[in-house]
Amino acid sequence: MRKIKSILITFGILTPILTLCSLTLVKPDDGFVRLFNGKNFDNWTLTLRNNDAEMAKKVFTIDKKGVIHVFKDFPEGFGSKTDLNATHGMMWSNKKYSKFIFKFEYKWGKTLLNNSHVYQYDAGFYYHCKEPKIWPVGVEYQVRYNHIKNINHTGDFWAPGDLVRFDWTADKDDKFAFIKDGGQPVPRKKGEHAASAQAKFNGLNGKWNTCEVIVMGSKYAIHKLNGKVVNYATNLTLEEGIIGLQSETGEIFYRNIMIKELNTDIPAEEFLK
């Protein structure tokens, strides 16, 4: 092997080969920044509805693989009859964002708690939030699974109050659809704006789901699930704010949490291809 290496160097062959190999190993800078380092909650503030800071550390934990484990040691049905919603909470960013692409992965655990009799396995990602309140004024990328009917709600928009509105189109079943696919404008409303069922999803099979949220200030927001566009809204009443991941009614794992901030407006069509 040394003799071959010597010959290659002599004839000037090895250097190009090594250069080519080194180039193939270098990943291009895609502009994404990891918001969770897998070790601690630097860059985040943990908040619960009951304002119990010590309890928040038990709700949001980090396992040996560097994955966030929500409701790790909580018993089935915790808080469902007493202390309702006490551990509903958020892990908040310490920075505001306006134009960005946010990515994360999640999978469900088994435990159900709090008011899960209403919403089953429920969590979510909030953005454009004015303050770290439970629950906040902001836009939600819903993360939810109805295990009773085997219906996935991940990718739904949720507009929690009168201050949160946007333009949205839906089909006859009140699920998101582009106008070219039969969708029609829906009067601005609060509450659920159901995602289309175009994307495959992982429920209680222990497998990860990949989520992507593309937000261009108040111009538009795109929700993707496992590579598919499942929801789209325009003309948001909110333009910027802090972001956060929820603890709500189901044991859940989060990982690969990252964001790419955008300095200029990019047409939605670039992401809807």
Secondary-structure blueprint:
Elements: H1 2-10, H2 14-25, E1 33-34, E2 44-48, H3 53-59, E3 60-62, E4 68-70, E5 89-93, E6 99-112, H4 116-119, E7 121-129, E8 139-146, E9 151-152, E10 157-159, E11 168-170, E12 184-186, E13 191-193, E14 209-216, E15 220-225, E16 228-234, E17 242-247, E18 250-261
Antiparallel strand pairs: 1-18, 2-5, 3-4, 4-18, 5-17, 6-14, 6-18, 7-8, 7-17, 8-9, 8-10, 10-13, 11-12, 14-15, 15-16
Please describe what this structure looks like:
With 273 residues, the protein is mainly beta. The chain is built from four helices and 18 strands. It has helices at 2-10, 14-25, 53-59, 116-119; strands at residues 33-34, 44-48, 60-62, 68-70, 89-93, 99-112, 121-129, 139-146, 151-152, 157-159, 168-170, 184-186, 191-193, 209-216, 220-225, 228-234, 242-247, 250-261. The strands form three sheets. Strands 1, 3, 4, 6, 14, 15, 16 and 18 form an eight-stranded antiparallel sheet that branches. Strands 2, 5, 7, 8, 9, 10, 13 and 17 form an eight-stranded antiparallel sheet that branches. Strands 11-12 form a two-stranded antiparallel sheet. A hairpin with a 5-residue loop joins strand 3 and strand 4. The longest helix is centred in the first third of the chain and has 12 residues, at 14-25. The radius of gyration is 22 Å and the shape is globular. The chain starts with a helix and ends in a 12-residue tail after the last strand. Mean pLDDT is 90; it is low at 1-28.
